[in-house]
Amino acid sequence: MATFFGEVLSVYSRAVEEEEEDVDEENEEDEEIRRELEQKREVVLHWSPEVSEALRSGNKLQCSDFILAVGHNAASFLSAYVLSSANWDAVGHASVWNERSRAVTGQHSEESACVFHRRKDNPSVLICQVTCYLAEDQQFQWTEKVFECLQHRELNVMVLSDGSVADYKTADYLCSSSAPFLRSLHTGAFSDRPVCQPLEQPNIITGLPAAVLNHCQVHRVAAVVYQCYSDVIGPDSVTMETYKLALTRLGRSIQLDPSPSTDILRKFARTTDIQSNLYI
Amino acid sequence: MPAVAVGNVGQLAVDLIVSTLNMSRVGHIHTDCLIPMAGNNPYATCKEDAEELHTPAEVYTAAELKLAVLQIRAPIVQTKSKKFRQLLLSWIKASGFSRTVVLSSSHAYQRDDQQLQGTPLRYLVTPSLLKVSAHALKELGWREMERVSAFPGLTDANTEPRLYIPGGGITKGLYTDSCTEDLPLAVLLLFCSEGDNIPDAFTLVNHLNDWLQLLDNHSPEPNKWKIPPSWNLLFGSGIPPALF
């Protein structure tokens, strides 16, 4: 569009992308490329032999508690405070590829981006840590595929999710000392009391936690999301500690290490790589 | 229902309708075609109903007005817009609505010379709705959306004027599919630009009200629509005092 000074700017809308008109006139080659791309972007779950066996012929995993950590701080919190005790088995991972995935140099990075753990002495408690980026069209798919494997009856879902305080809207400006803090959102079927304040309007959550919440709402599963708003980019021990409050309710199913050693914390709260020291 | 379109005007207008008429939620559309989001009750009136989870596509009704409203809160996943259109149309058919109205908008900067003059509001109706509503539309004196030439400036006899709704999202697709499937559907759209689209939402919803008479006519004040709490802080948080 033209501005008052006569220059022509390209305009974009926050609501709609530029449409591709006449998509139906795609030729075969385009369709082939589109199909291949779709296949590459499919979310694939890889379970351990034990679990694959249990899931055979349409059976579902008996699960009473499913805890999902989305983001580095949430995932590191679970690693440091819960998974550090030797009571957990890694039982699977999900492979997810999208435009933001870095070129994988070996199996290791792919496997650690989305991992499932199960308690040895109580296999109905399942933990999942997601540290990779899930694209908008993959979030629903991931959710459907994972929940397909779990029986829904008497299932309790808890999602710990990282967020930035910059995305949190409030009328009184928050001074930095109040971050990090938790806000909760839960489904209609969740009858317990959340451990923190509910997420106030006009704030919303998006991404994988939202996809999980939508699924649970529609399927009447008790689920709660604890969104942690932090002012630090990257893994940080203070932010991780904020999630402690969320797990107090699960005391019986999850054994929380109340104060992990500094060595363990240091392992997870690495400072970011020096290549990006612009904002130190 | 709204179309997710420039300025989100349709969606804002629907928010006003649901909020003012105090409509009750009766269901949701759970689909992989919309980007996931979740939040607490955007129409909360008190603390008790504030903690109710809401999803990207929900249906509300007002029984006394025989009105159902679909609100769409998230963008459509780019590769799934055709699938979403088909989903909506099959739902509309299955529900047996006597008429469907799509509230939409289009980029103001892409108007051609004749569209620049006069009102920024336009309408479209499918043939099957025209049979029933022709008289009402004539009375209202509304302006139909013009067909524009595909290549403005070129006087090529072969290119017929066609319907073009830039920035309208799935509006054009919904309209053309409804014509093909003989569904009674109307589109009400507004030419606008991105920015503070609240006045645009009011313009569109008042325009709709002229036809459907959703509100009581006894209150003549212009601001008879109730703004929902989810419209707070549309342009960000409060300003940090330390900035000054």
Automatic annotation (TrEMBL), chain A:
One GO term (biological process): proteasome core complex assembly
GO cellular component, one term: endoplasmic reticulum
Pfam family name, one: PAC1
GO molecular function: proteasome binding
InterPro entries on file: Proteasome_assmbl_chp_1
Coiled coil (residue ranges): 9-43
Chaperone found in the keyword field: yes
UniProt KW keywords: Chaperone, Coiled coil
Domain of life: Eukaryota
Keyword flag Chaperone: yes
Entry similarity comment: Belongs to the PSMG1 family.
Database matches in PANTHER family: PROTEASOME ASSEMBLY CHAPERONE 1
Protein name (Swiss-Prot/TrEMBL): Proteasome assembly chaperone 1
Originating organism: Amphiprion percula (Orange clownfish)
From TrEMBL, chain B:
Pfam families: PAC2
Subcellular location: Nucleus
Any Gene Ontology CC annotation: nucleus
Keywords assigned: Chaperone, Nucleus, Phosphoprotein
Gene Ontology biological process terms in this record: proteasome assembly
Biological role stated in the UniProt entry: Chaperone protein which promotes assembly of the 20S proteasome as part of a heterodimer with PSMG1. The PSMG1-PSMG2 heterodimer binds to the PSMA5 and PSMA7 proteasome subunits, promotes assembly of the proteasome alpha subunits into the heteroheptameric alpha ring and prevents alpha ring dimerization.
Quaternary structure and interacting proteins, as annotated: Forms a heterodimer with PSMG1. The PSMG1-PSMG2 heterodimer interacts directly with the PSMA5 and PSMA7 proteasome alpha subunits.
Similarity section: Belongs to the PSMG2 family.
Protein name: Proteasome assembly chaperone 2
Organism per entry: Amphiprion percula (Orange clownfish)
Taxonomic lineage: Eukaryota, Metazoa, Chordata, Craniata, Vertebrata
